[in-house]
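Subject: for your reference before the review

Hello V.,

The reviewers asked for a structural picture of the protein, and I figured it would be easier to keep everything in one thread rather than splitting it across files. Below is the amino acid sequence we used in the manuscript, unchanged from the supplementary table.
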Amino acid sequence: MVANHRKKIIFQIGALTGGGAERVFLTLLRHLDRGLFEPHLVLLRAEGEFFCQIPDDVVVHILSGSRRARTLPGFLLLMWRFVRLIWNIRPHAILSSGGVNLALLAVTRPVLPRAMRLLVRESSVLSVRLSCESRYPKVWRLVYRCLYRCIDVVVCQSDSMVEEMTEQFHLPEQKVLRIYNPVDCDRVRELGRSDANLYSGAGPHLVAAGRLSIEKGFDLLLAAIPKVIECLPTVRLTILGDGPLKAALAEQVQQHGLTGFVSFVGFQQNPWPYILHGDLLVVPSRREGFSNVLLEALALGKPVVAFDSPGAVREIYGKHPAVRLVRAEDSAGLAKAIVERCSETRSEQYNHEASPNWFAKFAWQQVIGEYNALFLR
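And here is what came back from the structure prediction:
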């Protein structure tokens, strides 16, 4: 029998819902070097829009099957199942998505194999998120500091996130590593061209994509649309995604008389034809750790208007000629930028194609190489 010298790597995430972190994990699973590593995927729940996209050779483990992990008895049961699974697999490293998974790693660390390395990929501007969403942000910041002490490396999506981790959460520099999110430009462009133009009417056609939640700022975008209509009466907005604010956003559309101007098309397994055939991508996020959809729009050669929100938008995209940044949460400024950019696009036939050198640091080959180096440490 030939010994298997590949290192077992566990990718740990709650579920494969239609978000940016989930798409990144799938890209890593799809391209991870099978000559070096044996990938395993540990999910809390076997659900999500991306569940059907798991590569066939990835071993999948389901820990819970329900959301009871948020209760103390449920979390204790989850801990027992998790520890038993880890000792059965004995991986070289675990890459976790954070949140409940971070807590699970930190709390069980004393009883996990000592040689195993614990890695966490942080996907949000944590200090801002805690300030906006937590009743006791100072307490939660202290909790996160304690949890992170049990982790070997925290992977951040930008230099600004690295700075946040070292300054706000007091992590030593050697425990924090910046690895950009990957984009598979060839796949995005191929799938973008796989469907015909999905729009009708004169346009311009605006598109926005993401989870329908407060941090993504779709309510701010809808507040801007009446001013856009004043200048561009045939404008149409298509929103891709699903989430807890779907009903509230639909009500906002009705209240402002935007029913004929705004369409919700739900989550799309292949969102790229909407972006490719649209005139402009709008990113109205209140905070944004990286913005995968912005990067994908640039890969498709499309212009973008985005809020200059807390996170890495300015750091990564601020100097890109196809991106126009607007003061954060300024709906009037957003409307003005949309009108100006649509006018430029239509009258001057704007067709930007970014330099391949700009995309090199985000190419999946580069990013996978950086994760390979991390896993081999």
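For the response letter, the relevant points are probably these. Residues 7-183+361-376 form a domain with the Rossmann fold fold (CATH 3.40.50.2000). The CA atoms of residues 66 and 143 lie 25 Å apart.

Happy to draft the paragraph if you're swamped.

O.
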